[in-house]
Design a protein that fits this description.
The complex is a heterodimer of chains A (about 110) and B (about 110). Chain A has about 110 residues and is mainly beta. Chain A has no helices and eleven strands. Helices cover about 0% and strands about 50% of the residues of chain B. The chains are: A mainly beta (about 110), B mainly beta (about 110). At the A-B interface, strand 5, strand 9 and strand 10 of A face strand 4, strand 5, strand 9 and strand 10 of B.
Chain lengths: ~110, ~110
């Protein structure tokens, strides 16, 4: 069965530092994988997605993620954190007709 | 602009009352979804619908009901049978899971 695990419910970085948010998945079929961002009291916004093709996917706001089949991972990175990146981030995997979401990682950015 | 609208943004109700949350989309998406979000628990699926006049239970359907009479609309009713209804509710729609979901801005329900 498909599932998603996000390691670390909270991540803190300094402004300008590397952001790394971890996501591991389990899927019996080739997965579609997504990262979403949620700002306080708002809905989720799609950051990027992997479906097929190139394993390094670039998204909005300077984020990117790499699909690694051998490690069943889809970690989200950004070279240099900005204060505006503070939010909650969700990884998701497809399960036929719906998405399965991880429990989220809250990113704090310190000046 | 196309999008998905949830209303109201904040809702307060007394315990024991039913309440209906609105979700409308003009994206021409076939599928619509309702999620509940609680701190530290991520998103939990309540109900979803792939086509008009058909819907399926999600992981936490007890105490909730839905209808899908029109493609654009997927209202969620939180009934008095829901034991802990205070939460943030998110509606989403999708053309196909290949494209992911488009989310509304959410409704925060507080039951007192």
């Amino acid at each position: 069965a498909q599932s998603v695990t996000q390691l670390g419910s909270h991540v803190s970085v300094s402004e300008g530092a590397l952001v790394l948010l971890r996501c591991n998945y389990s899927s019996s079929v080739p997965p579609y994988l997504f990262w979403y961002v949620q700002y306080p009291n708002q809905g989720l916004q799609l950051l990027l997605k992997y479906t097929t093709g190139a394993t390094l996917v670039k998204g909005i706001n300077g984020f990117e993620a790499e699909f690694k089949k051998s490690e069943t991972s889809f970690h989200l990175t950004k070279p240099s954190a900005h204060m505006s990146d503070a939010a909650e981030y969700f990884c998701a995997v497809t399960l036929t007709d719906k998405l399965i979401f991880g429990t989220g990682t809250r990113l704090q950015v310190f000046p | 602009d196309g999008g998905i609208t949830q209303s109201p943004k904040y809702l307060f109700r007394k315990e024991g009352q039913n309440v209906t949350l609105s979700c409308e989309q003009n994206l021409n998406h076939d599928a619509m979804y309702w999620y509940r979000q609680d701190p530290g628990q991520g998103l939990r699926l309540i109900y979803y619908s792939q086509i008009v006049n058909d819907f399926q239970k999600g992981d936490i359907a007890e105490g909730y009901s839905v209808s899908r009479e029109k493609k654009e609309s997927f209202p969620l009713t939180v009934t008095s049978a829901q034991k802990n209804p205070t939460a943030f509710y998110l509606c989403a729609s999708s053309h196909d899971t290949f494209y992911g979901y488009t989310f509304g801005s959410g409704t925060r329900l507080t039951v007192v």
